[in-house]
Design a protein that fits this description.
The complex is a heterodimer of chains A (539) and B (122).
Chain A (H helix, E strand, L loop, with lengths): L2 H28 L1 H4 L1 H16 L5 E2 L17 H23 L3 H15 L3 H33 L1 E4 L2 H13 L7 E4 L6 E3 L5 E5 L4 H16 L2 H14 L4 H23 L4 H16 L10 E2 L5 H13 L5 H18 L3 E2 L2 H4 L25 H11 L5 H4 L3 E6 L8 E7 L5 E6 L5 E6 L3 H4 L12 H18 L7 E12 L2 E10 L6 E10 L3 E9 L2
Parallel strand pairs in A: 1-7, 3-5
Antiparallel strand pairs in A: 2-3, 4-5, 4-6, 8-9, 9-10, 10-11, 11-15, 12-13, 13-14, 14-15
Helix pairs in contact in A: 1-3, 1-6, 3-9, 3-10, 3-13, 4-5, 6-9, 7-8, 8-10, 9-10, 11-12
Chain B lengths: L6 H12 L3 E2 H12 L3 H14 L2 E4 L6 E4 L3 H16 L4 H11 L4 H15 L1
Antiparallel strand pairs in B: 1-3, 2-3
Helix pairs in contact in B: 2-3
The chains are: A alpha+beta (539), B mainly alpha (122).
């Protein structure tokens, strides 16, 4: 898996989820009574879904933030912006060090910027992230296995007799399928344990008058699927272990699950029963019966101020406002959908200018059949077309042809110029036998300006191969047979500006002493266009 | 040899310290009204306590009888040490300070402690 794929997911998920977590924190504090604990737990569920599901939906606006010189189209715009901003920030630090005369510091910053940009730092970071995930996964697995082993060792007996009958009656009342219940000793408090085959652990020291209350609480956890919730929380913490907000959210959602469980427990209770229930919670708090966050088990209580708030909520029991709850659920669901919209609307648009097929509109006469100068116009039309210019009919109005005698060995060369007062300035030069010697468009930015460097294609072997293939195809059309003398292509430079990218790529001959040196300057984006071609023979 | 006894096992030990030997049925009959424990629970706890060395079983008679192997004082000492180590880092002085500060020790209690300490030194 490429590091770009990992970063796309982690960066997008963490940015969206972190924003949502920061919104949830005050929301749950200020509007808990009005919204209800179920709505708050639903909010946490949506955040967990964003953190865990690597889904990307298209977004028509996201392309606007794609950095211009993003090296790799596999890096999506958000991750690309982060990368470019980091590289820029490091470069700025380097520049400020340079201005202060610290050349060593400047070089170091340049090295770091290069490392982040293309020299392997992202890959190292991805490896660290993966190692962190493995470490946390192993730690959680160890803790849970150890916890389960201790519980198994301390198991006394399943509940039986009168207690069993009471439990089955309770399950029927609460419309819950009965799950096993085991007396255990020692264990600090009752808990629901396990995911696929859950069971309830009941301290053997639980007072008989409290057993029903305790079991009610645990089966309400089961009905709320809190044992599955635990897995989601753990997965979020494992995958996003580096984000403290995720850990905070996991802890908060655990507390909110308890409050939601209380709501379900007390929904069928009268005032006296609610007070008794609150009393049991206080007693359980004295035993410090909370399993740790890494353990997949639900405890019964909390400590300190949270317990106090919980007791107050149980006794007061306010009903949430339905319209507010519904509004929150709808808005939160919409926000989740938007949070997944981080993909580009038309990924193909980014690749405009990438090669898909060789252009061959007009036939170019094969070499041996070229009659110069009679066939020259047909030759010109064909060559300009396969060079990516489809305006021969327009430019031919400004055509002028001259003879040149630059080298004796080249014989009479025919130079065809297309120029007007409106910035049209192109030419192509043919040898006596119709060999194309030069083709040039002089109205191009790369001639006069010092363009910024681009590295989009030069590091992409597949893209470079496509460029080479297309140039070879041009060569075979323009000068059949000339391509056989080319040993390999070599990139001289790549520049980019305002959505355009150019590259000079030279064809190195097999025989450097007598072969033809070929130079191409091609515009790769937005559309392919060969803007300069020249071949020089040493022979 | 120190034997650590859980809270549930302590209840059984209390039963045996009050009157020993007792059968499992007798112990269950004593404890069930207050704890709700069934025979199965008591059997499992007794088995564990036997393995730990807290009780021993005499199976010479038709009904197995259980006797405690540690005294109440030994068990109390063990629990006290455990409590001191856990809460007061093993220092009894910290416990006494806490009791004095919280007002849980009366003048008579303090005098009694002093008398015991003087008696120990002699």
């Amino acid at each position: 898996m490429r590091s770009a794929t990992i970063f796309n997911f982690l960066i997008e998920a963490n940015i969206m989820a972190s924003i949502a977590i920061l919104l949830m924190i005050p929301l749950r504090k200020l509007l808990r009574k009005q919204m209800g604990n179920t709505a708050i737990c639903f909010g946490w569920l949506l955040i967990a879904l964003r953190l865990l599901i690597p889904l990307t939906l298209p977004n028509p606006l996201i392309h606007e933030i794609r950095p211009t010189y993003l090296e790799d189209t596999a890096i999506r715009p958000i991750a690309g912006q982060i990368k470019v901003r980091i590289v820029d920030a490091i470069s700025d630090i380097g520049l400020s060090l340079f201005r202060r005369g610290d050349r060593q510091g400047f070089k170091q910053m340049q090295k770091i910027a290069a490392g982040v940009d293309y020299n392997g730092y992202p890959e190292i970071l991805a490896l660290i992230l993966m190692i962190g995930m493995v470490v946390f996964f192993c730690w959680f697995v160890f803790r849970n296995i150890r916890f389960r082993m201790i519980l198994r060792k301390n198991r006394i007996a399943p509940i039986s007799g009168t207690l069993q009958e009471m439990y089955l009656t309770l399950c029927k009342e609460r419309k819950v399928k009965p799950i096993p219940v085991y007396f255990t000793d020692p264990v600090p408090g009752a808990c629901l344990v396990g995911v696929f085959r859950p069971y309830i652990v009941l301290p053997v020291m639980t007072a008989p008058q409290d057993v029903v209350t305790v079991l009610t609480h645990e089966i309400c956890h089961f009905k709320n699927r809190d044992h599955i919730w635990n897995i989601l929380r753990l997965l979020c913490c494992i995958i996003h272990w580096f984000n403290p907000l995720v850990w905070i959210a996991a802890s908060m959602s655990r507390s909110d699950s308890e409050l939601r469980c209380d709501d379900r427990v007390t929904s069928l209770m009268n005032d006296k029963e609610r007070k008794d229930y609150a009393g049991v919670l206080v007693l359980a708090a004295a035993r410090k019966s909370i399993p740790g966050i890494g353990v997949m088990a639900t405890g019964m209580t909390m400590n300190g101020k949270r317990l106090k708030n919980r007791i107050v909520a149980i006794i007061q029991r306010t009903k949430p406002l339905r319209w507010l709850t519904a509004t929150f659920i709808i808005l939160a669901s919409m926000c989740l959908t938007v949070a997944f919209c981080t993909g580009e609307w038309n990924p193909g648009a980014v690749q405009a200018g990438m090669f898909d097929e060789t252009v061959s509109v007009h036939d170019v006469p094969v070499h041996d059949e070229r009659q110069m100068p009679e066939d020259i116009q047909g030759l010109e039309r064909g060559i300009w077309t396969i060079a990516g210019y489809n305006d021969y009919d327009e430019i031919s109005q400004f055509r002028d042809i001259t003879e040149e005698h630059l080298w004796a060995s080249a014989g009479t060369m025919l130079k065809v110029i297309y120029a007007d007062s409106n910035r049209l300035d192109r030419h192509c030069t043919f040898a006596e036998d119709g060999t194309l010697l030069e083709l040039q468009d002089l109205n191009v930015p790369w001639l006069g300006e010092n363009l910024p460097e681009s590295r989009k294609y030069v590091r992409d072997d597949v893209a470079l191969q496509e460029v080479s293939d297309r140039l070879m195809a041009f060569l075979e059309k323009a000068n059949p047979g000339m391509g056989q003398s080319v040993d390999h292509f070599s990139v001289m430079w790549e520049s980019g500006q305002n959505g355009q990218i150019w590259m000079q790529i030279d064809g190195i001959p097999k025989d450097e002493k007598t072969g033809e040196w070929i130079t191409f300057v091609v515009r790769l984006e937005p559309e392919w266009q060969l803007q300069y071609f020249a071949c020089v023979s040493n022979g | 040899m120190s034997v650590q006894v859980t809270e549930a096992e302590w209840k059984i030990m209390e039963c045996l310290w009050d009157h020993a030997p007792q059968t499992m049925g007798e112990i269950t009959a004593t404890l069930e009204p207050t704890t709700g424990w069934t025979r199965q629970t008591v059997i499992t706890l007794l088995k564990r306590m036997t393995e730990k060395g807290a009780v021993s079983m005499d199976d010479s008679a038709r009904a197995k009888k259980y006797v405690p192997l540690i005294t109440r004082e030994e068990a109390s000492t063990e629990e006290t040490h455990k409590f001191l180590n856990h809460v007061f880092k093993g220092k009894a002085s910290l416990l006494v300070n806490h009791l004095v500060d919280s007002g849980d020790l009366s003048e008579d209690d303090l005098q009694e402690i002093l008398n015991v300490m003087r008696g120990e030194k002699k």
